[in-house]
Write a structure and sequence with these properties.
- Helices cover about 15% and strands about 40% of the residues.
- It has three helices and 14 strands.
- With about 230 residues, the protein is α+β, with helices and mostly antiparallel strands.
- The strands form three sheets. It has a six-stranded antiparallel sheet, with helices on one face. Strands 10-7-13-14 form a four-stranded mixed sheet, with no helix packed on it.
Length: about 230
């Protein structure tokens, strides 16, 4: 004799909830794809936020530096795999030296078709944060902002009628008053304190940290905020 048991009936609203959760789980496991397959700086389609910034110089049509910042609700390992694939398609070559990958952080260096590139991933509020940077070596050289190999370059000027002096790394640099072309100073990598005096009066005192092969626009006027990396 065969006995047939009836299964427990699940209310329709609970079946709908289970189906929705199943669909959400399957969607979250889908591989990340690029929102624009032709963009130089790829953004995952599921990114909750993304923004671009660029630095430029007078007389140079293309940006010296491009930066993408984004957040995506995906695991760090999935985002890392996405960028290794997408950047590889765009001719970026990953450099093994200096690569750091942990459960909640990744730092990768690349040689891109236009110049050095870096990818930094982190975790915040259940999402993976993205900071992708590409620097254009040819554009920086055209603007005279490319530092000597292994050095960092500071670019500065002071647009006031008075003569100013910049004290940094045991050097005193005179800055002519009036509208002047940007002046440059190459320094070894490190953290430097600097002061700016105008007509004998201290108008700014700050520090700046420089890495090799970077270029920074040094903010000299009080209230200008932090200095900007332009290459």
């Amino acid at each position: 004799m065969t006995t047939a048991r009836r299964g427990t009936k699940v209310p329709a609203r609970w079946r709908l909830l289970v189906c929705s959760l199943t669909l959400l789980a399957s969607c979250s496991q889908q591989p990340l794809t690029a929102a624009d397959a032709h963009a130089d700086m790829p953004v995952p389609t599921r990114a909750s936020h993304s923004s671009f910034s660029r630095t430029s110089a007078d007389g140079v049509e293309v940006p010296l530096r491009l930066e993408l910042k984004a957040e995506v609700p995906a695991e760090l390992g999935d985002v890392l795999a996405f960028y290794r694939t997408e950047l590889g398609k765009r001719g970026w070559q990953e450099k093994p030296d200096g690569t750091v990958v942990t459960a909640d952080r990744a730092l990768l260096a690349f040689a891109s078709p236009k110049g050095p590139g870096t990818l930094t991933l982190g975790r915040a509020k259940g999402e993976t944060t993205i900071d992708l940077v590409q620097r254009n070596t040819q554009a920086a050289a055209k603007a005279n902002f490319l530092p000597m190999p292994g050095q960092a370059r500071l670019i500065f000027g002071y647009l006031v009628p008075d003569v100013a002096s910049l004290a940094i790394n045991d050097q005193i640099v005179k800055i002519a008053g009036g509208l002047n072309h940007p002046q440059t100073l190459d320094l070894p990598p490190g953290t430097y304190s600097y002061t700016l005096h105008v007509s004998g009066h201290l108008v700014r005192s700050d520090t700046i940290t420089l890495a090799a092969d970077q270029a920074w626009f040094l903010k000299l006027r009080d209230g200008d905020g932090e200095s900007d990396q332009i290459y």
